Fold this protein.
Amino acid sequence: MNVVALIPARMGSSRFPGKPMAKIHGKPMIGHVYERVRGCSLLTKTVVATCDQVIYDYIESIGGQAVMTSNQHERASDRCAEALGYLEKDDDVQYDIIVMVQGDEPMTHPDMITEAVQPMIENPLIHITNLLGKIKSREEFEDRNCIKVVCDLQGNALYFSREPIPTKGKGNTIPMHKQVCIIPFRRDFLLKYTKMKPTPLEVVESIDMMRVLEHGNKVLMVPTDFESYAVDTESDLNRVEKILFGG
């Protein structure tokens, strides 16, 4: 089975411009993500998908592989679909599973990728999965940069939101969960995704997976015990650096 990890990254983040090249312990964040992802033994290869020459040049400078894509994509999944087309043509191979790992997930552990992909290896009927992390504080629960998730009884996502869900009203003991942006797609489903029309809730929440749900498809959420925090702000960057390297 051919499994490729694609890491979408761009400099033009509205919340933290230039963040892929922001340094954590002296190394650009995208470098940490790339090296951690590449450590997963399930992967055939790891590639960064970007529309920025500075990111492309950096990845090439550390011996990695990058692909240049359009700068018009609103969604990381669409950027990955474009990059996949170039890769398959250049490599003369058809990849079976494409693992999208967001470029702002520097705490990614190689085993997290294995966790996310394993259900797809075991069950050919699963078209897409997404890691599900634990929210450990009220602050994180109320942070709009943290994407909250609620699931059905089979572990499929019901809804993703930047708002606090489910309600933490009186008597609610339901655990709080968040999306961790390690998202494997089967090849055909990624290509199907990019042909789907963007949807109203996808746009208002600014969350790729809402397009999947609004078109009537399932996203299996795979629990992980690994601690992970995405970097959306400079304070996030500082928190991640302290967790990974102390200080």
